C-alpha cells in the first residue's frame, strides 16, 4: 500500500479533489511516522481542496508572521 | 535530488490549505479595521513566547548527554535566534496602543487556549522528545508578509501603516528569512528520526494554527453580542476589554 493509498483510506484525500502528481510524489516520499502524523491531525490534503479561497499566490504574500 | 528543506516545504504546503484560507479570511475580512486589534492580540500571545521558547530549547540542547551531533549547532542557532526575536512583541503592544488598546489591557487578558496549545506542544516536544522539533515550528510560523501586500491592506482597509509596525518590521528585517532557514536546514546532517520530528512538529503547528485563526474570526463575530463581547479587542470602541484580573 502506498502512502497515497493510506491517506485515501483515512479520508484525507477527497475523491473529487485528487492530489496533483507533484503532491502525490511529495506524499510518497514521506516516512510512515510522518504519514501517521498527517492522519492523526486529520487535515484535508492538497492545494486543490481550498484553491477557491486562496487565490493568486496570496498565501505567499500574506506570509505567516508570528514570531 | 530533493533537499531536506524542499521536502519540508512541500509537506507544509500540502497541509496548509486550510490555514492559508483562514489567514486570508482574516486579511480580507470585510471589517478588517475593526477585527485587526483582535488579530494582533492573538499574534501577541504567540510572539511573546518565541524568544523564551528558543532559550528553553537551547537549554534542552545543553542538557543532551547522549552524544547528539546536532546539539551544539542547535544550541547556538536557538540562542542567536532568541536574541533576534527578543522584544518583537513590543511592536504589537505599540500597534495595539496606537489603536486605543492599552498595554495593561493586553497583558491582563488571558491568551487564547489555542495559542497555549500551539506553543505548549513545542514545550512538550523539547522537554520530552527532542529540541530539534522547534525547527518545524519556525518553518511554519516565520514567513514575513511582503511590504507590497501590507501597503495594499492598509489602502484597502484604512488601517494606518503606523499601526502595522510588527508586520512591516518583519517584512523589512526578514525578507530572506525563509531562504536562510532553508539553507541552515540543508546544512545539517539530519538522521531519519530528526527529519520525522521536524515534519511532525510542522504538521502539528499548521494544524494548531487553524484553531488560532478560527478563534480570531469567531471571537470577532461575538462583538455583535454584548454579553459575549466584553473581552474582545476591536477598534470600533464597542468592545474594548475591561481589566478583569491581575498577576
Ligand atoms: Fe520576530
Describe this structure in words.
The complex is a heterodimer of chains A (about 70) and B (about 250). Chain A is an all-alpha fold and about 70 residues long. Chain A has helices at about 5-10, 20-30, 30-40, 60. Chain A contains 4 helices and no strands. Chain A starts with a helix and ends in a 5-residue tail after the last helix. The model of chain A has no long low-confidence stretch (mean pLDDT about 75). Chain B is about 70% helix and about 0% strand. Chain B is built from 12 helices and no strands. In chain B, helix 8 (about 135-140) packs across helix 12. The interface of A and B includes residues 27, 55, 59, 64 and 65 of A. The structure holds fe (ii) ion. Fe (ii) ion binds near residues 85, 88 and 170 of chain B.
Brief synopsis:
The complex is a heterodimer of chains A (67) and B (247). Helices cover 45% and strands 0% of the residues of chain A.
Question: What's the SSE blueprint?
Answer:
The complex is a heterodimer of chains A (67) and B (247).
Chain A: H1 3-9, H2 21-28, H3 32-41, H4 58-62
Chain B: H1 4-15, H2 17-27, H3 32-63, H4 71-85, H5 88-98, H6 103-108, H7 113-128, H8 133-141, H9 147-157, H10 165-173, H11 177-186, H12 192-221
Helix pairs in contact in B: 1-12, 2-12, 3-4, 3-5, 3-7, 3-12, 7-12, 8-12
Bound molecules: fe (ii) ion.
Which structural class best describes the helix and strand composition of chain B? Answer: mainly alpha
Q: What is the succession of H and E elements of chain A?
A: HHHH
- Largest sheet of chain A, if any? none
H and E string of chain B: HHHHHHHHHHHH
The global form of chain B is globular
Instruction: Report the oligomer.
Output: heterodimer
List keywords for this structure.
A: 67 residues; mainly alpha; 4 helices; 45% helix; B: 247 residues; binds fe (ii) ion
Amino acid at each position: 500500500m502506498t502512502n497515497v493509498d493510506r491517506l485515501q483510506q483515512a479520508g484525507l484525500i477527497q475523491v473529487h479533489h485528487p492530489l496533483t502528481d507533484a503532491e502525490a510524489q511529495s506524499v510518497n516520499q514521506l516516512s510512515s511516522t510522518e504519514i501517521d502524523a498527517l492522519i492523526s491531525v486529520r487535515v484535508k490534503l492538497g492545494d486543490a481542496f481550498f484553491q477557491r479561497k486562496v487565490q493568486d499566490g496570496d498565501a505567499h504574500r500574506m506570509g505567516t508572521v508570528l514570531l | 535530488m530533493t533537499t531536506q528543506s524542499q521536502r519540508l516545504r512541500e509537506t507544509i504546503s500540502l497541509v496548509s490549505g486550510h490555514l492559508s484560507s483562514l489567514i486570508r479570511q482574516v486579511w480580507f475580512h470585510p471589517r478588517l479595521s475593526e477585527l485587526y486589534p483582535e488579530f494582533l492580540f492573538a499574534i501577541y500571545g504567540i510572539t511573546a513566547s518565541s524568544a523564551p521558547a528558543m532559550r528553553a530549547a537551547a537549554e534542552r540542547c545543553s542538557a543532551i548527554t547522549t552524544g547528539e551531533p546536532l546539539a551544539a549547532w542547535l544550541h547556538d542557532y536557538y540562542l542567536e535566534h532568541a536574541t533576534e526575536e527578543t522584544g518583537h512583541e513590543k511592536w504589537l503592544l505599540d500597534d495595539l496602543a496606537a489603536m486605543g488598546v492599552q498595554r495593561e489591557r493586553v497583558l491582563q487578558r488571558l491568551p487564547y487556549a489555542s495559542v497555549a496549545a500551539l506553543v505548549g506542544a513545542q514545550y512538550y516536544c523539547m522537554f520530552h522528545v527532542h529540541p530539534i522539533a522547534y525547527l518545524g515550528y519556525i518553518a511554519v510560523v516565520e514567513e514575513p508578509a511582503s511590504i507590497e501586500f501590507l501597503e495594499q491592506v492598509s489602502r484597502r482597509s484604512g488601517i494606518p501603516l503606523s499601526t502595522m509596525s510588527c508586520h512591516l518590521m518583519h517584512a523589512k528585517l526578514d525578507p530572506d528569512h525563509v531562504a536562510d532557514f532553508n539553507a541552515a536546514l540543508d546544512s545539517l546532517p539530519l538522521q531519519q528520526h530528526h527529519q520525522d520530528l521536524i515534519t511532525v512538529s510542522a504538521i502539528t503547528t499548521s494544524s494548531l494554527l487553524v484553531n488560532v485563526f478560527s478563534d480570531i474570526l469567531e471571537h470577532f463575530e461575538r462583538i455583535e453580542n454584548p454579553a459575549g463581547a466584553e473581552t474582545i479587542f476591536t477598534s470600533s470602541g464597542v468592545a474594548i476589554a475591561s481589566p478583569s484580573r491581575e498577576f
